[in-house]
Amino acid sequence: MGPRRRVGAPRAVTAATTATALLLPTLSRASSLGDESALPAVDADAASFDGTSFSASSSTSTANVTAAGARFLYDADHRIETARIYGNIDAFAYFYIDLLIGKPAQRVSVIVDTGSGVTAFPCKACSHCGHHLDPNFDFTKSLTAKWSPCGSGCTCSQGHCSYSQGYTEGSSISGWYFTDEVQLGDALQHNPPVRMSLGCHQKENNLFYTQKANGIMGIRPPGRAPTIFDTLYADKAHINGKIFTLCLAEWGGELTVGGVNTSHHTGDVQRVPLVTKRGFYHVALTEMSVGGKVVGTTFGTTMIDSGTTYTYMSQANYKSLRSLIESQCAHGACGGTLTGTCWDAPKGVSKFPFVEMTFDHRIKTRWDPRAYLYRKGAGNKFCYGFENDGPHANTVLGASWMMYKDVIFDLQSDTVGIAPAECPSYRTRPDFGADGEGPDPVTPKPQPKPVRTPLSEIVAAADQKTKDDDDDDDDDIEKTGKGGKDDDEEDKDEDEDKDKDKDKDEDEDGEEEKDEDKGEDEDEEKDEEKDEE
Questions:
Q1: Strand 94-101 to strand 81-88: parallel, antiparallel, or no bridges (unpaired)?
Q2: Which of 191, 193, 327, 420 is the most buried (most CB within 10 A)?
Q3: CA–CA separation, 396 vs 155, rounded Å?
Q4: What tens digit of pLDDT does each residue of 61-109 get?
Q5: What is the DSSP string of 450-468?
Q6: Which residues contact 353 (CB under 8 A, 6 or more apart)?
Q7: What is the pTM of this model?
């Protein structure tokens, strides 16, 4: 799987740049997704669920997770939804979450993309769709699914409101819009459902065909057509406000909607002015430096895009950034050896320098070396997570920049908060029931084998048994954790005790079966000696 990349965005980022997919750096967009304003508007329709894992102040939409809330259940008190994020820069080239669609629920995996607006995935009736993490969505099995009819401003295909996306190298997706109930995250979170417009792929090619995740979840700023988050924000009974966060680790992370989980933060939140009027999350990056030496001060238009794998910048900034990192880490000073664009660092990258990044000329943040250097494979090879995008390129802060930060998109204050964080890590998704209605029951852990009771305790219990009623005696023995035995078994135990006295190497640890075997072996040896005589 190659790196994901929003086509064209790093150069001419304009309102016309509406690509949904995220492709290789060399590709260029051939056509847009069509008029997303044609998506039918739907009303929020949600049910309430119990369970909470946050303690928060609703006035600030800030939450703190306690140890008891490790499963991140929906916080009904403060109206905050949480979902696990999965994925990895190297293994997947993107990060994704699960959605539960329809009734009964069907699970689909979707790439988290702050640079597009449509949530779409392949359907079972698709004539050419790949094999993904989850089965293709079966429209016929959802009792709540409804096709979106053709209407004003909608391209009609076979009686359905349709969409299409194409690329010059051959990748494409096309399908039909429908509405259904959607829950954010997996069934463990119990997030309330909302009804919204979705895309049902009827055809996908090349990169969309081969990717592991089923589809894409576009969460760009509010604009022409409502995104899944716009629909959630409208559900004021269950969502506190227009705010969401992405906290990415090396593997997976956490998404919150309606509030902020500060429990992962390792430093203060720095708030940067956010510009969203062009349909993207734009910030003013004004300086970058390493060890006090300036990388550059000209970055053009800077966009935050979770759907782009790496961080892209101009040729001059790329060369300067590499040069400063490599000069500081020369001669093994950072514990690594450079080959090409990758470092062999047996002890990790903790000694590599932070990259200081200044926004709006005054707000300083840091780019962690664990983020700008991503692990290649399972060993200790770390490669640059930033790329040269040409001499006149703008800047895209992709997933490699977002790692080890809690990035807080606050549409209420038009700011993006940036806090250093140790984000939760998830590699494995919970099981989802074969019937499509939820997770399979957790298999109970095997119980430990019972420990055999020492013989001295058995004898004491037997003495007690002669004094008390049989039934009462059994109850007393069970309460004290000592097992009683009948007379025949006690006779056997006495014989075993004699064998143990003969063999001083054996201890009285209650391993009665071993003692029986050893006693029988010794008896057989004596019988053989008598026969020989």
A1: antiparallel
A2: 191
A3: 32
A4: 444 433 333 445 899 999 999 999 999 999 999 999 999 999 999 999 9
A5: PPPPPHHHHHHHHHHHTTS
A6: 290, 291, 324, 325, 328, 329, 334, 369
A7: 0.72
